[in-house]
Amino acid sequence: MNPELSTAAPADLNLYLFVAAVLFVSGIVCMATKRNGIGVLMGVELVLNGANLNFIAFGRFTKLGIDGHVLSLFVIVLAAAEAAIALAIALNFYNNHLSIDVDRADSLSG
Amino acid sequence: MPAPSPLGSTLSSLLMIAWLLPLCGFAVEIFGGYWGSRKSKAAAYLAVACIAIAFVCSLSALVLWGNATGWSALGHHAAAGAEHAGAAHAGSANAGSAVHGPFSDTLYTLARFGNLRVAIDYYIDSLTLVMFTMVTFIATCIHLFAMGYMSDELTEQYEDHQVHVRHGHFHRPGRFYRFFAFLSLFCFSMLGLVLAGNIFMVFVFWELVGVCSYFLIGFYIERKSASTAANKAFIMNRVGDFGFLIGLMILWTHFGTFQFTSRVEHDGTQTAGLFQMLRDDHGHLTLTESGRNVVLSSGFETHGDAHEAHAHPGPEAGHGEAGHEAGHEAAEAEGHVLATEARTIPYYLLIAAGLGIFAGCVGKSAQFPLQTWLPDAMEGPTPVSALVHSATMVAAGVYLVGRFYPMFTPEVLLTIAYVGCITAFLAATIAVVATDIKKVLAYSTISQLGYMMLGLGVGGWGAGLFHLVTHAFFKSLMFLASGSVIHGCHHVQEMPQMGGLRKKMPITAIAMLVGVIAIAGLAIPGTPIAFSGYHSKDAVVASALTFSELNPTHFLLFYIPLAGAGITAFYMFRLWFYTFAGEPRDAHVFEHAHESPPVMTGPLIVLSLLAAFCAVGGEHGPLFGLLTASEPATIPHELVAAAPSGLTLPTHGAIADRHARAGMYALVIASLGAFLAWVFYGARWVSPADVQRQFSGLHRFLVEKWRFDELYDTLFMRPVHVVSAFVAGIDKRVFDGLLHWLAGATVAVSRWDRLFDEQVIDGAVNWTAKTVYTGGASLRGLQTGRLRQYVMFIVLGIVGIWVLAQMLIS
Amino acid sequence: MNWLAQQLDNLAWMAHGGAVYVFAAMAIVCALAVVFTHNVVRMAFWLILCLAATAGLFFSLNADFVGAAQLLIYVGGTLVLLIFGVMLTASGPFLQMRTKPGEMVLGGVVGLALLGLLLSSALAVRWGERSPVLASEVVGAGFNPVAEGNTTRELGLKFLGASSRDLKTGRGELSAGYLLPFEIVSVHLLVVLIGAAYLARTKRRKQPADSSGDSRSAALSA
User: Fold this and answer.
1) Nearest by CB: B788 against A33, A107, A108
2) CB of B522 within 8 A of CB of B534?
3) How far is CA B419 from CA B369, B371, B427, B745, in A?
4) Whole-structure pTM over 0.90, yes or no?
5) The complex's ipTM?
6) Residue numbers of the domain that contains B179
7) Could you report the per-residue pLDDT of B701-746, keeping only the tens digit for each?
8) All domains in chain C, ordered by first residue
């Protein structure tokens, strides 16, 4: 591969940071607005993806290097685990309330 | 001085048995009410057995002692009385002291506090032996008598006719065993007092006899009069014992020992006793040059040295220091003496110590001014009056004066003589008007004790103790006789209700007559036919006469006792005539009167024999000889004035010269008294009632006992009451007021404090709690439990923090 | 041939460079679509596209293994799981639960604020100037697996606690690796799987047997 090409970034680091920020904020907004429990879960996935993108980008453009890949792999694995647990919880919730509206899960309200 | 000799140890063992047996008896008898029936006489048998064995032991000790000395005391004194050679007397006394001199040793050491050694010592000389024999003998007689007298108590339901309760008389279980238990305890205490070898032990047993007296006077404790009398006796004795304690303290401070005489320790060293420290072998005090202090010798001189030093016991006891000092130095040079320097005691303190000890004797022997308790003590059963309050315990004061004679300075002896003189006269006058048969005897006892004190005080050591022994016999006899009368008349004690009883109780009447003649001191002049009282009173009066002639300023010391002798004869015959002669005054009492059983009359007969004949031979007889064998060396052998006081104490020779004259005076006066009594009460030529009317003021004064009780009431009781009332007032007003005020103030402060507590502190706490609660309740709204809101909060929080950080940075 | 190869290379480079933007745009659009869609099934679809675009971005960053893992685990695994969840719970009315417009507006405003925060932070940093180390030393000479996009071997070594550079220098010293976290994560996964199975299955078994469970949970929710 061409050394100039390889050293020159295909795109600026800022591009990736921008995309990651958008993904992150989308996930947050998703969590904040969706009444559907599954939707909230999807927001979490988006947040995790934004974070992952940051790790990889910094691994590419900074000295973080391969460690960023390792971290993002851990995140992926933990996201999978989280999804499994969250789905189990959602199913349980559905069994108890016959609904997956998170607004109805307010037993802890003061 | 007295090395433990075989004779000494034998005597001490015998006397110890005699002494401790009554204690064993007491230990068993006191539980008689629990172990046996109240109707059983076991306690009495045990008590009689104990005291009888004690008597046998005492008598054998006396006989042993007499055999060992070859009865030299009897013969010796006869010879000494004839010669009166002072030096010879001193020499023979020294020679004989190894055999019949005092035996003293420690039985048991109780405790040791530094130099102070508290021990049970014994001190045995002929006086001890005679006292032991006399006390145990009389006690045996009285125990036997009491078995009959107290038989009323042998019941489960004793009815006390003198105690009134709501429904008739007071009933209680009989206390026969208790009476004998206390009698035994008393015997133990009395014998311990006689045996005591140190002044501390004397004090202990002094208090023990006091407490026994208290128990026995208060035997009918339910009677108010009895319990009051017991308290009175005890408290009056305390007054005297206070002085006793002060005397003890002075002695301890300056002598550093309590024991009477020197003693060989187990390691061979000698420790000096009080007598050896104060007096040399010739009974002289050693004064320092200033004359204000008395040198205390360490008491270690060997006899040889002492004799050389005192080769010429000069007439001026106070000026012979040179010889004494030489003797001391010689002794020190020989290494016999460990003491570094001679100890001294101020002369005035010696007087104070003597007066203090004598104060104890005054209390115990009911001398003026503490005499008022003894008549009241007659509330006790009559055997108690006979044993405790006439023959033995009250004589203990006299005995102690005799025993402690070497410690008394002439000034103290003069005080003793005057106290005895006053007491003898005062009590005799009261006895003249007393109507209670036991009260008459009680005053007579006080009067006779006064005679003993007088005898001792005027230098008649032998005379005083002689009178002590004879008086013990005839007074116990008379008390027992009166007890027999009271028993026979069913507890009537007033003489005006009696009369003519000689027909009903002849033995008692004769026994009483013997006692009366003995105490009155009647005799047929020129013949040896004379009862014991004649001899002993003669001796006392002779001593008093000699003293008053040698010291003319003190002439009253002869005339008052002489008058007292006449009064004694008068009131004693009055008693006899009142009770036994003439016609019955109260038919009812006379009807029921009866002669007492043999167990009571037996002791009467024995005692009347002794009362009549114990003093046979007078001052040349065996009893006087026995007593004077242990006469202290203080009795002077030459007529010299004692150094600081200027008093001349009579010698044996001087007394013997005036003896016949004094005896004649006394006999004439006594006969006159007896004749007057016959005139008034026997022949009834003059009506006593007329005389009473004639001298009604004097009569009332005497009936009221010279108003001593009133005087004490005014002098001590009233002021105490007033002061107490005042103090109580202060207590109530001031202290209680203060306390009340404090309490009120505390309540007020507490109330305010409570207000503060409730308003401020509780308010603060409640406000805090309420605020927290309100805050929590309001913040509770934040916990919506809605997931999506939490996400919003998180985001808003992050943004907020960021904005804040930006603002802070910029 | 050479030219062709050159052209192709250029084209590939251009395509490469353009693809980055395409993927970026796609990821942004799809993410926004997830936010604004109300239908759960469609949300899932947009999410798949978003995640796939992100995987493309990974590839563009030479993270070939992570990108593959993203595709495999997320798109192929997690999302299938999600869709299972959707299908198990989605019945009638719940399929479309609309949020209130006010909430949407509020969420949008808050989201924009957060976005502004993140972007301003990220863009405020001049990466190259501030820290030359960050940019210059990323790609070294010689064997550079990251730059070459061949990271599998390197990752494996990392998980074992080593790195290829350590092996190459032969100093015998190993840099810090990820063996322990790897083990922890694997055990974690196991626990999660068991827990998820338990959570999903117990209630289902209990419900017919215990009718009071429903009322109790209803009471709790009330």
Assistant:
1) A33
2) yes
3) 8, 11, 12, 60
4) no
5) 0.85
6) 1-74+118-195
7) 777 777 787 888 888 888 888 999 999 999 888 989 999 999 999 9
8) 10-91 (1.20.120.1200)
